[in-house]
Every structure is written in C-alpha cells, then in structure tokens.
Structure prediction request, 288 residues.
Amino acid sequence: MAKKIKFPLQMKNDAQVRDLDELREHFDLDKAIGYFLDGKLLSWLEARYYDTEADAVRALNKDDADVHRRLCEIFGVEYHAEEAPKIDVEAVEERNRRLGELKQYTSDPAVLEKVDQVAFNQEDLADLIDEGYSDIYLCNNSFVIPLRVRNKHYIGIGKAEAVIRSQECVDFDELGIRFENVKFDEAYEKKLHRLPSSFQCPICKASSDKFAKDEKDDSKWICGICGYVHKYSMADTSKFFSFSDTANQTKWECDICGYIYETPSETLPQGFSCPICKAPSNKFSMKQ
Prediction:
C-alpha cells in the first residue's frame, strides 16, 4: 500500500508544522482561519488521526462571529480578541476558488503563492494594472495588452496569448514591457515577418507591399518593381519600429536617404540606425 503523503501547514514565521505540538508552538490565528476556510486544516488533522480536534473543526460554522475564539480553544492556545483578524469570508473563498483554478495549469509553489497577481480574464488584467503590480501572470487566455501602460512583466501560464493592437512592430524595450512564456496573437505575429508599412524602396519609391521575401534568404526582400534587394532582419531591427496607436508621433527624417521614422518619444532609441542606408541616429533630423 502506497504511503500517504502528509503535507505540513505553514504557520508563524513560515514555520512548517507537522504535529499538534508544533502547531501550538507556532500558532498563527490568521493563517489557521485561512486553512479552516479552505479545508486544509481539517485534512491535516484527519491525515494524522487527530480525531477529536478534527470533529471539533468540522463542527465549526464559518459564519459564527466567535469562530476565532473557538478555533483557539480547540488547539489549547490563548485567544486575544484584540489580535483576532477580521476575515472577509467571501474574499477568502474567492481566493481559494482562484487558487483551485490556477492549480489546473501549474503546481509551482512560487506561482501559487502569487495567485493574487494572476489574471484569468481581461477584467482581472485591468484590476491588476490599476493596483500597480509590475509582475502580472496571464493564465490560459487571450489578453489585450495596453501599450500605454509601461514597465510591466507579463508571465504566461498555460496557453497565454498577448494581443498587440498596433499597426507596426512595437519597441517593447522602450516601453519597459517584457513577456515570458507568452505568445503573440496571429495578426501581430504576421507583422513580425514583414517590412514596416512606412518602408519605401530607396530606388523607385515603391511601397513595402511591392516587396517579396527572398526564398533562399529570409533576411532579404526584393522590390518587385526595380529589383532592389533590401536586407532586413526582424531579429535585429524590429525593436526600432514603435507602435503607431498613440497620439502625437514624432517624425524623424534621415539626412542621407530621406527615410522617415516615427516614434512616440522625442528621442531616438539608443543604438538606432537607418534601416535603409544604415546611417546613425545623429544623421536624423526631427520634422516639424
């Protein structure tokens, strides 16, 4: 017969308690109430055959105003009314529901501890952004990422998708936005494998849709009008193309070839060079 795994309870000062003596020594009323509400306290007692205490906990009513004192009495610890936590039962139950849903996609304890930073839908994402979290977990859903909100780290759980509503490739480094284990939506993925719409052939001025990718070299694009070959690698240059869904774009013109670059800021990205003639950023002039 397989040995039954007995999990400890985490109490005061993160102590891992495995028997009643340890529970009494490190008793934390706030955490004990939480374990009572999510059923872990009863399971912990039953697994260790503490039948008397298990029966007493089973008889407790979560809506009883005196539940804190009665829980202390069960374990023989002193009760201090002024230290009793004010438990929002509905909030605890909702957190436990979210925790249960999260466990369907991960068993990582480090992630489970951050269930309050997990978005399961777009409304959750909006709430977490409004609450000021920098690290936000996106769980098994599709999320529209607000590009005007900077300095965020989005971490995917399950099949998480980031929807990027932008006509051009986004300079995520400039925005301070990072993604981890998150895929982009199909429409934005296609943008990552084409020339920027603002691009023009430096020879015949043909628009970007007149270019076709070289079948033998993914980094080369050939103008269908004049045959000009443009070397362009998204891995190297996509970060320089800022999103176009913000107002007041600043236009910069290359003094060498006339290429126009748009950015939401009044400075060019560090290390920027013209994608046409490779001129450095100091060869660009701001257009009024």
